[in-house]
Amino acid sequence: MTSPSSTLLAARVGDTVCVKLAGRANFATSVDFKRLINEARVRGAQRFIVDLAACPIMDSTFLGVLASLGVQLSADDPPPEQRPIELLNPTPKVADLIDNLGVLHLFRVVQGKDLANLCFTAVESTGATKLELSRNCLEAHQVLMDLNPENAAKFKDVAKFFAEDVAKQEAAQ
Fold it and tell me: Taking the domains of the chain in order of start, what are their residue ranges?
């Protein structure tokens, strides 16, 4: 497992956090993304705009983390215009990936807005350990399988691999 191959930038406006994701959204990026969203929630953020215009692809772990956050933030199943996570300008490929996993309903998808006038700062990587990465990958795939039974066939072997990897690493500690 290597370092992230994407860049996270964040800006806060009132109770809204705007995140620009540039590059491939992968398992390593997902740890920092999840930490950013959870820390912002603790500080009172209630709405999240994720600018995906410069994100050509997401791996299943990042998609699972995104879906998990969508579930946590939309516990009362708000109408689409009130969903707390807005996906801004996703590429057709990314939108198709999210839709094909059966989790698009968790988000508000918007095209065309521009966040260029905000002052973004880089989100520093936490340098997650191999165990943290493996746990994150396992949880993300479990969420995808729980949300859509059709995903079980796609991810059961991946989830089994990460479950065994987590158990092995925990036993070695």
Answer: 6-122, 130-172
Residue 39: C-alpha distances to residues 17, 50, 92, 169 (Å): 11, 16, 30, 27
- Nearest by Cα to 89 from 106, 102, 72, 107: 107
Beta-carbon count within 10 A of 158 CB = 18
Q: State pLDDT tens for residues 126-167.
A: 888 999 999 999 999 999 999 999 999 999 999 999 999 999
Domain 6-122 has CATH 3.50.50.60: no
Helices (runs of H) and strands (runs of E) counted in the chain: 5, 6
- The pLDDT of residue 79 is 75
CA–CA separation, 172 and 94 (whole Å): 37
Which element (helix H / strand E) includes 154?
Answer: helix 151-172
- Report how far residue 18's alpha carbon sits from residue 114's, in angstroms, rounded to the nearest whole number: 11
In whole angstroms, what is the distance from residue 111 CA to residue 100 CA?
Answer: 19
